[in-house]
Amino acid sequence: MKQTLENLISAREIDQRLTELALELNKDYEGKTVSLICILKGGIMTLADISRKLTFDVEFDFMDISSYGDRMESSGIIKINKDLDTSVTGKHILLVEDIIDTGRTLVYVVEHLRMKRPESVKVLTLLSKPSRRIKGGITPDYVGFEIPDAFVVGYGLDYAQRYRNMPGIAALSMETPES
Length: 179
Ligand code: IMP
Description:
By secondary structure, the protein is of the alpha/beta class. It has a single domain (about 10-150), classed as 3-Layer(aba) Sandwich (Rossmann fold), CATH 3.40.50.2020. The chain is about 20% helix and about 40% strand. The chain has three helices and nine strands. The chain has helices at about 10-30, 45-50, 105-115, and strands spanning about 1-10, 35-40, 55-70, 75-80, 90-100, 120-130, 140-145, 150-155, 170-175. The strands form two sheets. Strands 4-3-2-5-6-7 form a six-stranded mixed β-sheet, sandwiched between helices. Strands 1-9-8 form a three-stranded antiparallel β-sheet. Strand 5, helix 3 and strand 6 (about 120-130) form a beta-alpha-beta unit. The protein is globular. Inosinic acid (IMP) binds near residues 74, 104, 152 and 153.
Protein backbone atom coordinates (compact mmCIF):
# COMPACT_ATOMS: atom_id res chain seq x y z
CA MET A 1 0.00 0.00 0.00
CA LYS A 2 1.40 3.36 -0.99
CA GLN A 3 1.36 5.89 1.86
CA THR A 4 1.16 9.60 1.02
CA LEU A 5 1.75 12.44 3.46
CA GLU A 6 0.32 15.93 3.17
CA ASN A 7 1.70 18.51 5.60
CA LEU A 8 -1.00 20.07 7.78
CA ILE A 9 0.63 21.81 10.75
CA SER A 10 4.30 22.79 10.95
CA ALA A 11 6.58 22.41 13.99
CA ARG A 12 6.67 26.21 14.24
CA GLU A 13 2.88 26.48 14.29
CA ILE A 14 2.70 23.82 17.01
CA ASP A 15 5.26 25.68 19.10
CA GLN A 16 3.39 28.99 18.72
CA ARG A 17 0.05 27.41 19.67
CA LEU A 18 1.57 25.65 22.69
CA THR A 19 2.95 28.99 23.87
CA GLU A 20 -0.57 30.48 23.67
CA LEU A 21 -2.08 27.54 25.56
CA ALA A 22 0.66 27.74 28.20
CA LEU A 23 -0.18 31.42 28.82
CA GLU A 24 -3.79 30.40 29.47
CA LEU A 25 -2.75 27.52 31.72
CA ASN A 26 -0.30 29.71 33.65
CA LYS A 27 -3.22 32.03 34.52
CA ASP A 28 -5.71 29.25 35.29
CA TYR A 29 -3.37 27.24 37.52
CA GLU A 30 -1.27 30.02 39.08
CA GLY A 31 0.03 28.97 42.51
CA LYS A 32 -1.29 25.41 42.17
CA THR A 33 0.44 22.05 41.79
CA VAL A 34 -0.89 20.07 38.85
CA SER A 35 -0.46 16.46 37.93
CA LEU A 36 0.13 16.31 34.17
CA ILE A 37 -1.05 12.91 32.98
CA CYS A 38 -0.06 11.63 29.60
CA ILE A 39 -1.42 8.58 27.82
CA LEU A 40 1.43 6.75 26.18
CA LYS A 41 2.67 7.06 23.60
CA GLY A 42 1.09 9.71 21.40
CA GLY A 43 0.95 12.54 23.93
CA ILE A 44 4.61 12.58 24.93
CA MET A 45 5.73 15.34 22.55
CA THR A 46 2.91 17.63 23.66
CA LEU A 47 3.63 16.90 27.32
CA ALA A 48 7.38 17.48 26.92
CA ASP A 49 6.97 20.72 24.97
CA ILE A 50 4.11 22.37 26.86
CA SER A 51 5.41 21.45 30.30
CA ARG A 52 8.57 23.48 29.65
CA LYS A 53 6.42 26.57 29.09
CA LEU A 54 4.54 26.24 32.40
CA THR A 55 5.39 28.39 35.40
CA PHE A 56 3.36 26.57 38.10
CA ASP A 57 4.47 23.37 39.83
CA VAL A 58 3.81 20.17 37.93
CA GLU A 59 4.18 16.45 38.46
CA PHE A 60 4.29 13.92 35.61
CA ASP A 61 2.52 10.60 35.46
CA PHE A 62 1.76 8.20 32.63
CA MET A 63 -0.90 5.69 31.70
CA ASP A 64 -0.60 2.99 29.09
CA ILE A 65 -3.83 1.69 27.64
CA SER A 66 -4.83 -0.63 24.80
CA SER A 67 -7.87 0.27 22.80
CA TYR A 68 -9.51 -2.53 20.93
CA GLY A 69 -10.37 -1.44 17.44
CA ASP A 70 -8.81 -1.43 14.04
CA ARG A 71 -5.70 0.58 13.34
CA MET A 72 -7.62 3.70 12.42
CA GLU A 73 -10.56 3.79 14.86
CA SER A 74 -10.90 3.14 18.58
CA SER A 75 -13.73 0.96 19.90
CA GLY A 76 -14.06 2.36 23.40
CA ILE A 77 -13.22 -1.07 24.87
CA ILE A 78 -10.10 -0.26 26.79
CA LYS A 79 -7.61 -2.20 28.83
CA ILE A 80 -5.28 -0.43 31.26
CA ASN A 81 -1.77 -1.85 30.85
CA LYS A 82 -0.19 0.66 33.23
CA ASP A 83 -2.04 2.85 35.71
CA LEU A 84 -0.65 5.93 37.49
CA ASP A 85 2.35 5.50 39.82
CA THR A 86 1.41 8.46 42.01
CA SER A 87 -1.71 9.22 44.05
CA VAL A 88 -3.89 11.95 42.54
CA THR A 89 -6.48 12.06 45.31
CA GLY A 90 -7.19 15.71 46.12
CA LYS A 91 -4.92 16.93 43.30
CA HIS A 92 -5.55 18.91 40.12
CA ILE A 93 -5.22 16.69 37.06
CA LEU A 94 -4.51 17.96 33.57
CA LEU A 95 -4.76 15.13 31.09
CA VAL A 96 -2.47 15.81 28.13
CA GLU A 97 -3.69 14.10 24.96
CA ASP A 98 -2.41 13.97 21.40
CA ILE A 99 -5.76 13.79 19.65
CA ILE A 100 -9.46 13.39 20.37
CA ASP A 101 -11.25 11.64 17.57
CA THR A 102 -14.56 9.98 18.56
CA GLY A 103 -13.84 10.79 22.23
CA ARG A 104 -14.43 7.17 23.32
CA THR A 105 -10.98 6.72 24.87
CA LEU A 106 -11.31 9.92 26.86
CA VAL A 107 -14.75 9.10 28.28
CA TYR A 108 -13.25 5.93 29.73
CA VAL A 109 -10.01 7.49 30.98
CA VAL A 110 -11.68 10.53 32.60
CA GLU A 111 -14.16 8.25 34.37
CA HIS A 112 -11.25 6.10 35.60
CA LEU A 113 -9.39 9.18 36.90
CA ARG A 114 -12.48 10.62 38.60
CA MET A 115 -12.78 7.42 40.64
CA LYS A 116 -9.45 8.38 42.23
CA ARG A 117 -11.19 11.48 43.70
CA PRO A 118 -8.93 14.25 42.38
CA GLU A 119 -9.67 17.92 43.17
CA SER A 120 -10.28 18.61 39.45
CA VAL A 121 -9.83 16.97 36.05
CA LYS A 122 -9.30 18.98 32.89
CA VAL A 123 -8.27 17.86 29.43
CA LEU A 124 -5.79 19.41 27.04
CA THR A 125 -5.52 17.99 23.55
CA LEU A 126 -3.18 19.09 20.79
CA LEU A 127 -5.64 18.05 18.08
CA SER A 128 -9.39 17.61 17.97
CA LYS A 129 -11.66 16.30 15.22
CA PRO A 130 -15.04 17.76 16.31
CA SER A 131 -16.93 16.29 13.34
CA ARG A 132 -16.10 12.76 14.56
CA ARG A 133 -17.26 13.18 18.17
CA ILE A 134 -19.82 10.67 19.50
CA LYS A 135 -22.77 11.81 21.61
CA GLY A 136 -22.06 12.01 25.33
CA GLY A 137 -18.36 12.54 24.64
CA ILE A 138 -16.12 14.79 26.66
CA THR A 139 -15.41 18.35 25.57
CA PRO A 140 -11.73 19.20 26.01
CA ASP A 141 -10.90 22.29 28.06
CA TYR A 142 -7.84 23.30 26.01
CA VAL A 143 -7.48 22.54 22.29
CA GLY A 144 -4.42 23.19 20.15
CA PHE A 145 -5.98 22.80 16.70
CA GLU A 146 -9.34 21.66 15.40
CA ILE A 147 -8.75 19.57 12.30
CA PRO A 148 -10.99 18.00 9.67
CA ASP A 149 -11.74 14.28 9.52
CA ALA A 150 -8.38 12.97 8.30
CA PHE A 151 -5.99 10.40 9.70
CA VAL A 152 -2.95 12.33 10.90
CA VAL A 153 0.56 11.37 11.94
CA GLY A 154 3.66 13.05 13.36
CA TYR A 155 4.61 14.84 16.60
CA GLY A 156 3.94 11.68 18.62
CA LEU A 157 1.09 10.31 16.48
CA ASP A 158 1.69 7.10 14.59
CA TYR A 159 0.37 4.75 12.00
CA ALA A 160 1.49 1.22 12.93
CA GLN A 161 4.20 2.77 15.20
CA ARG A 162 5.66 4.83 12.32
CA TYR A 163 5.98 8.61 11.89
CA ARG A 164 5.98 9.52 15.63
CA ASN A 165 9.25 11.45 15.26
CA MET A 166 8.08 13.81 12.50
CA PRO A 167 8.33 17.37 13.90
CA GLY A 168 5.04 18.51 12.33
CA ILE A 169 1.61 16.98 11.66
CA ALA A 170 0.67 15.48 8.30
CA ALA A 171 -2.45 13.80 6.88
CA LEU A 172 -1.76 10.22 5.83
CA SER A 173 -3.61 8.65 2.95
CA MET A 174 -3.22 5.12 1.71
CA GLU A 175 -3.73 3.88 -1.78
CA THR A 176 -4.13 0.22 -2.60
CA PRO A 177 -2.26 -0.75 -5.80
CA GLU A 178 -5.53 -1.18 -7.74
CA SER A 179 -7.04 2.16 -6.60
P1 IMP B 1 -10.87 8.22 20.17
O1 IMP B 1 -11.13 7.28 21.30
O2 IMP B 1 -11.67 7.87 18.94
O3 IMP B 1 -11.04 9.68 20.54
O4 IMP B 1 -9.38 7.99 19.70
C1 IMP B 1 -8.32 8.41 20.47
C2 IMP B 1 -7.04 7.70 20.14
O5 IMP B 1 -7.08 7.11 18.82
C3 IMP B 1 -5.90 8.70 20.10
O6 IMP B 1 -5.33 8.88 21.39
C4 IMP B 1 -4.96 8.06 19.11
O7 IMP B 1 -4.16 7.11 19.73
C5 IMP B 1 -5.88 7.37 18.12
N1 IMP B 1 -6.18 8.24 16.96
C6 IMP B 1 -7.36 8.83 16.66
N2 IMP B 1 -7.27 9.55 15.52
C7 IMP B 1 -5.98 9.41 15.11
C8 IMP B 1 -5.25 9.95 13.98
O8 IMP B 1 -5.76 10.70 13.12
N3 IMP B 1 -3.94 9.58 13.91
C9 IMP B 1 -3.34 8.77 14.82
N4 IMP B 1 -3.98 8.26 15.88
C10 IMP B 1 -5.28 8.58 16.01
